[in-house]
Amino acid sequence: MIRGLMTFTALTWVSTVLAGAARGDVIATGENGIQIRIVRQVAKPSTEVYDAIVGKIGKWWSSSHTWSGDAANLSIDLQRAAMIEALPEGGFCRHLEVVFHQPGSTLRMTGGLGPLQEMGLNGALSIKTSAKDDGTEVVLTYNISGFLPGGFAPLGPLVDGVLTEQVDRLVRYCETGSTDKAKNEIIPATPPDGIELVDELVEISCGECQFDLAGDRCDLAIRRNGNAMFVDGFGIDD
């Protein structure tokens, strides 16, 4: 099973809470839904950025946040008016429906992204681009509504973190042609061999998504006393 937004495991829920706030904004949470807003600046013309959003999603979306495990299977098909992922043996997932497309400006899609679909939640995801300061401002807004046992409060940071990762990958792709992160300037301290943590609270999450460790997928990591490190021998789904 694919990690991140596409997997709702106990680890995913716990890691989201422990990792703290994501880098976007959950700007509203209510009994029946949440609203998420992410704003980024891109040092490229708005038409170029918009074309990457609509026509090259398979280049910048993370493979770790797909059902098939390969973002190349993901596309925004304007003729079929949908964000679609090809699955093995002729299968497919129609993630979102395209309901508004203004070339170079606005893309709006409706539906529940990833597991939100199975949970019966609906949403409106809008991505707007506009020229600003010799570059482009990208604004992503996702309004999610429906019924969720236990309330929407735990869901907001999770969805926010995953979408923030995708927008940041889009920015890097547009500006550099690659989604790779720059290597960390601060190298986490290496723990002594055989270190044992007893009765100690540490943060646990995806090292790349939440702790800014170098990598291009979701790997299990902990952060202790401000130092983040990957966990050898265990995967994010463990």
Describe the structure.
With 238 residues, this protein is an alpha+beta fold. The chain has an eight-stranded antiparallel β-sheet, covered by helices on one side. Helix 1 packs across helix 4.
In short:
By secondary structure, the chain is of the alpha+beta class. 21% of the residues lie in helices and 32% in strands. It is built from five helices and eleven strands.
Content-based structural category: alpha+beta
Number of strands: 11
Query: How large is the radius of gyration?
Result: 18 Å
End-to-end Cα distance: 11 Å
Mean pLDDT: 83
Order of helices and strands: HEEHHEEEEEEHEHEE
Shape call: globular
* Main sheet makeup: 8 strands, antiparallel
Helix segment count?
5
Low-confidence stretches: 1-22, 184-188
